Amino acid sequence: MGSFSGNSPPKIVHGEAGYVLEDTFPNPLQDNTAYSVVKQYFVNVDDTVAQKIVVHKGSPRGTHFRRAGPRQKVYFESDEVRACIVTCGGLCPGLNTVIREIVCGLHHMYGVKKVLGIDAEDRLLDAQGGYRGFYARNTIALTPKTVNDIHKRGGTVLGTSRGGHDTGKIVDSIQDRGINQVYIIGGDGTQRGASVIYEEIRRRGLKVAVAGIPKTIDNDIPVIDKSFGFDTAVEEAQRAINAAHVESDSIENGIGLVKLMGRYSGYIAMYATLASRDVDCCLIPESPFYLEGAGGLFEYIEKRLKENGHMVIVIAEGAGQELLSEVLRTSHQQDASGNKLLQDVGLWISQSIKDHFSRQKKMAINLKYIDPTYMIRAIPSNASDNVYCTLLAQSAVHGAMAGYTGFTVGPVNGRHCYIPFYRINEGQHYVVITDRMWARLLSSTNQPSFITAKDVIEDSRDEEEPPKTPKTQMSDDNSADDKLMVNKDVNERAVIG
């Protein structure tokens, strides 16, 4: 670490579980011409964002998080920063934009010149991208010039991987390379890994900031308003739905079936359905449905075909898994990230619909099945997500430069803030089928809710499904106490001391 500015030594206050540095470096943004016209640009260290914005009279104030943004004092001296960026998990629109804006934010706002990309392939270690990239011998130097146009491409220029990792080896690599800022971009599994890495860094007493940027196309990360890439995914899903509508409308008794991403959370399917207005039925993991009998899917399909002559069905990949026969299910198999392997419910339900109408011989149907899954996640982010990715990246940079660590950045009620890893890792974000948004969808499609019928399989969401997110713990205290800080053990300002 570099020496502190000024002639007097830094004032260090000893806390119960660590140190708090009160005298730190002045933020170089105060001399940045780009921000010279901005009033009250710096965020007060005591500013917080409420997790619950609508409360009843007399109810507790609730949980608050540190507001994201630049502080007047920073912990790291720009010349001493050696940052690294890693992307993990599946692809998602906006990954390259986040990488670009972290690099450009560090360089242009704080004068940081040493930024590494964790990617380099090592054939001996079979490592390429993701956490396994830390095992490789080489890294990629990232500069504003090298990342200038990457936001125009899908995927990630750093490469990615799934699966477990050796925390000790990763932290050894961070320590050996002299890295003191780690930016980790990934979904819920990646953020859990980031939390473990942060704890190991903390255990070793290293002065390293660990910042997470939440990424999941399914929008299933809790606490934050939404994850980046979601808007792009919904927009691209519209193309598939439109194609299904054209196909179904062009032939007698046409059915267009579109399968969208959504392993446990049906947000893409729900929002794409609401945006489209061409969908007659939306099936998501959170809302069980059944096929046969009164009020079932087959009966509804027949009814819509008689009324309109065609229909469009949208199904999320995790919907209806409990209806697949035990022969087809892979309940005990997992992918490299530990997720349960799912069967292709789109193909299965397509064949089930065909078989049903073939047996009934009441009407001939023409079904077209469209699966745009990998097309959706591999495209560049749209304008809305590009702006959002910029805010996420810059907020992460501000937090790390200020010395905060062990946090994920994201918007809560429209305000970006620093959320401790443990809060992000408490559970997953699901569509609430007793909420108004799902009611709006049912009203829009005029489909049955299915859940009221006696034929619904009881307890269809069995023990194999991840548990629901626990209720938020409420607190009467409006301040950001040590339970709400990015580092639970320190109460003020720079937390890596």
TrEMBL record:
**What does this chain do?**
Catalyzes the phosphorylation of D-fructose 6-phosphate to fructose 1,6-bisphosphate by ATP, the first committing step of glycolysis.
Q: What is this protein called?
A: ATP-dependent 6-phosphofructokinase
* Description of how activity is regulated: Allosterically activated by AMP.
Q: Which organism is it from?
A: Rhododendron simsii
- List the active-site residues: D218 (proton acceptor)
Highest taxon of source? Eukaryota
Annotated site location: Important for substrate specificity: G189
Q: Which gene encodes it?
A: PFK
Record: residues binding Mg(2+): D188
The main enzyme category here is transferase
Q: What is the lineage of its organism?
A: Eukaryota, Viridiplantae, Streptophyta, Embryophyta, Tracheophyta
Q: Which GO terms describe its cellular component?
A: cytoplasm
Q: What residues bind ATP, as annotated?
A: G90, R162, G163, G187, D188, G189, T190
Subcellular localization: Cytoplasm
Bias-annotated ranges (Basic and acidic residues): 480-497
- Indicate where this protein is primarily found: cytoplasm
Task: Recite the UniProt keywords alphabetically.
Answer: Allosteric enzyme, ATP-binding, Cytoplasm, Glycolysis, Kinase, Magnesium, Metal-binding, Nucleotide-binding, Transferase
A GO term, aspect molecular function: ATP binding
Quote the catalytic activity from the record: beta-D-fructose 6-phosphate + ATP = beta-D-fructose 1,6-bisphosphate + ADP + H(+)
Which EC number(s) are documented for this chain?
2.7.1.11
Among its keywords, does the record have RNA-binding?
no
Needed cofactors, names only, are: Mg(2+)
